Structures are given as structure tokens and as C-alpha cells.
Automatic annotation (TrEMBL):
<protein>
    <recommendedName>
        <fullName>PAS domain S-box-containing protein/diguanylate cyclase (GGDEF) domain-containing protein</fullName>
    </recommendedName>
</protein>
<feature type="domain" description="EAL">
    <location>
        <begin position="23"/>
        <end position="277"/>
    </location>
</feature>
Length: 279
């Protein structure tokens, strides 16, 4: 009866979902999303500031719900994390994304890198590194083509398991990026001894550019910091030309945001990559 597709039933279920009055139904829907093929990957370009070429594609997960439409990850990832679903969700993302990237490589249209978000919960799994290296090998992808986006917590938390994993991944050539930099209220000490290649400045600090003095100060000192540490910098959430021009002029390496491209599905991404190739 739970799987009934009767119109009344579906409507009842979706209203509950929308209002989140029935978190159990929502959670059950999420549990079934994988097997029902309702999850989908979108891709957003990271643009090299100087050449304006696509350096990487960031993989962004979507839940395409049959009645509610597209549900953004902020709505369901925290839930997946709390209820033990994140490991399988993350594993699925990794498999799908690498398979698709390998296909674009075969077509000769792939950018230099594919960037994948990793939940701290997923990273904690003892199988994470092994699964990842196997997926790279199965798809014949060079580790240096992969960028993992991790939030500060993974780097800051001084446990030896995390440290070992970060070092192992780095020694294999996988690129490690700090996502949402500046939002975690953490110290900078970890940057000194951890294998970090890249830092992503959160949209919160990009929003007020180029006018807001506080945003300018934060962005400029982050860029100086990264120059000193030989890390590359991505600015997130760049929505207009003024922001892009300012960031380029200040020496930011990569720009990501609606100004250069919204996240789009696999098909549209493929079209864009092929079109760029023939230009
Ligand atoms: P994030 O990693 O910081 O990703 C950037 C978010 O900003 C994305 O939201 C993207 O669509 C949005 N964005 C990009 N450019 C602009 C812009 O110019 N303006 C504005 N206003 N927004 C912009 P999205 O796709 O809803 O993802 C939200 C978060 O969910 C991500 O934040 C990431 O933390 C998480 N997430 C997404 N996919 C995955 C995944 O496969 N695994 C894990 N663990 N987390 C994921
Ligand atoms: Ca990210
Ligand atoms: Ca981010
Ligand atoms: Ca963010």
C-alpha cells in the first residue's frame, strides 16, 4: 500500500513533504530516491579567471521528485547525514560523476578536473579512500583530475584517521579543496601542515564586491594568504561582471557562479562542452 500510486495518496504524501510536517515520510522518500532513480547530478563550471576557459566542473546533487520537482541538496543532505544515508548517497555520486567524466574524456570534451563535494560523514567512513581509488581506476581517470571539496571541519579536527586519509589522497595526486572557506570560525593553523591545494571563498564574502569594504578586506587578505601558501583560490557565487573583473584583477585563479554558468544537468553540460570544443 505504501507504494500505491493512487492520485490521492501521492498528493497527501507530497503535501506532507512540502510542509515537512511529516519528516518520516520525507525520510522514507529519500531512502527510496536512489532505487527510484530520482537522484540526478548537475554540473557547474569553474572558470579560469584569465583565459575564461572551463577548468573544472563541480558536481551538484539534485533530488528530482515526481510531484515536488527539484529539491536542492541543502534540504536533504543534512537529513541523509543524520540518518545514515550519506555514505551510500556519496558513494553513488562518486560512481556516477566519475563515469560521466570518463565519458566526456573519451569524447575529448572534458575539462581538466571534476570537483566532487564530500560530506564529513562520508569522509569518516573507513572505506572512503579505498572506494574512491577503485572508482578512479575502474574509470581510468588520473587522480590529478579529481578535486575533492571538503569543509573546514575535516581539516581542523585533529584526528589521526582524517590526517592519514588526507595525506594518502594527496600522495596519490588527488587535489584537496577547502569549501566555504571563512564560514567555519576556525583558526588558520591547519593550513600550515595539511595537504591543501585549493581554497574556495564562500559566496557570503563575494556578494558585496567590489563596493563593500569588509568583503574586500576579507577577500584580498585571503588571496594574499593563498599566494603565500601556494594554494589556488576559487571565488564562489560570482553573479556579475563587476565581481568577476574585480576578482580577476586581484589575482583570483578561478571564478564560479551564475555569471559564467548555473548548474545544469548532464545533457546540457555535454552540449556546452561539445559546443566549446568546436568553437
Ligand atoms: P556548495 O558546495 O557551496 O555549492 C555551491 C552552491 O551555490 C550550489 O548550491 C550552487 O548551485 C550555488 N551557486 C553557484 N553559483 C551561484 C551564484 O552565483 N549565486 C548563488 N546564489 N548561488 C550559486 P546547491 O547546488 O543547492 O548545493 C548546496 C550545497 O549542497 C553545496 O554547497 C554542497 O555543500 C552541498 N552539496 C551539493 N551536492 C553535493 C554532493 O554531491 N555531496 C555532498 N556531500 N554535498 C553536496
Ligand atoms: Ca562545493
Ligand atoms: Ca562552497
Ligand atoms: Ca556553500
Amino acid at each position: 500500500a505504501a507504494k500505491s500510486k493512487g492520485a490521492g495518496k501521492t498528493r497527501f504524501f507530497s503535501e506532507d513533504l512540502r510542509s515537512e510536517k511529516n519528516p518520516l515520510a520525507y525520510l522514507q522518500g529519500l531512502r527510496e530516491a536512489l532505487s527510484k532513480n530520482e537522484l540526478s547530478l548537475f554540473y557547474q563550471p569553474l572558470i579560469a579567471a584569465n583565459t575564461e576557459e572551463i577548468h573544472a566542473l563541480e558536481v551538484l546533487l539534485r533530488w528530482i521528485h515526481p510531484t515536488l520537482g527539484t529539491i536542492p541538496p541543502d534540504h536533504f543532505i543534512p537529513l541523509a547525514e543524520r540518518h545514515g544515508l550519506m555514505e551510500s548517497l556519496g558513494h553513488w555520486v562518486m560512481q556516477q560523476a566519475l563515469k560521466q567524466y570518463a565519458q566526456w574524456q573519451k569524447e575529448g570534451v572534458a575539462p581538466a578536473c571534476i570537483a566532487i563535494n564530500v560530506s564529513p560523514i562520508e569522509f569518516q567512513s573507513e572505506y572512503f579512500v579505498g572506494n574512491l581509488l577503485k572508482a578512479l581506476e575502474d574509470n581510468q581517470i588520473e587522480p590529478s583530475c579529481l578535486e575533492l571539496e571538503l569543509t573546514e571541519g575535516v581539516f581542523v579536527e585533529q584526528n589521526s584517521a582524517n590526517l592519514e586519509k588526507l595525506n594518502e589522497l594527496s600522495s596519490r595526486g588527488v587535489n584537496l579543496a577547502i569549501d566555504d572557506f571563512g564560514t567555519g570560525y576556525s583558526s588558520l593553523a591547519y593550513l600550515k601542515h595539511l595537504p591543501v591545494n585549493q581554497l574556495k571563498i564562500d559566496r557570503a564574502f563575494v556578494k558585496g564586491l567590489p563596493k563593500n569594504q569588509a568583503d574586500k578586506a576579507i577577500v584580498e587578505s585571503t588571496l594574499a594568504l593563498c599566494r603565500g601558501l601556494k594554494m589556488s583560490v576559487v571565488a564562489e557565487g560570482v553573479e556579475n561582471k563587476e565581481q568577476a573583473d574585480y576578482l580577476r584583477q586581484e589575482g583570483c585563479d578561478f571564478i564560479q557562479g551564475y555569471f559564467y554558468g548555473r548548474p545544469v544537468d548532464t545533457e546540457q553540460t555535454g552540449l556546452r562542452l561539445r559546443k566549446l570544443k568546436t568553437q
